[in-house]
Amino acid sequence: MNKTELVGAIAEQAGLSKASAKKALEATLDAIAGAVKKGDKVALVGFGTFAVAKRAKRNGINPATKKAIVIPAKKVLKFKASATLLK
Q1: Does an H or E element contain 68, and which?
Q2: DSSP letters along 19-65, please?
Q3: Which of 48, 51, 60, 75 lies at a CB distance of 3.0 to 4.6 Å from 81, suitable for a disulfide?
Q4: Would you tell me how many other CB atoms lie within 10 Å of the CB of residue 41?
Q5: Tell me: the pLDDT tens digits for 37-81?
Q6: pLDDT of residue 10
Q7: 10, 16 in Cβ contact below 8 A?
């Protein structure tokens, strides 16, 4: 399912116009993105949890040159699905 199909499904299930459903979806995604950018955890009961995790720097190998490289530390987005999501 892509974004357009999701907007259509939201509009149909909520009895909204597609324009209103698109605004609602974009506002939801913006709110989630804003929260995780600040380092907050977003927990949607029955769906899952979005959180930021820190990945430590580590050693790796450049596959093209086979030389050792250092992969820098960075923040990554993690999503943990609710246990009830697929039931």
Answers
A1: strand 68-71
A2: HHHHHHHHHHHHHHHHHHHTT--EEETTTEEEEEEEE--EEEE-TTT
A3: 48
A4: 12
A5: 999 999 999 999 999 999 999 999 999 999 999 999 999 999 999
A6: 96
A7: yes
Report how far residue 43's alpha carbon sits from residue 51's, in angstroms, rounded to the nearest whole number: 9
By CB atoms closer than 10 A (0-12, 13-18, 19+), residue 7 is buried
| Residue showing tokens 């909520």 | 14
pTM of the model: 0.78
Q: Which two tokens stand for residue 8?
A: 């259509």
Sign of CA pseudo-dihedral 67, 73, 75, 76: positive
Residue 85, both tokens: 């999501």
Confidence of residue 86 (pLDDT cuts 50, 70, 90): confident
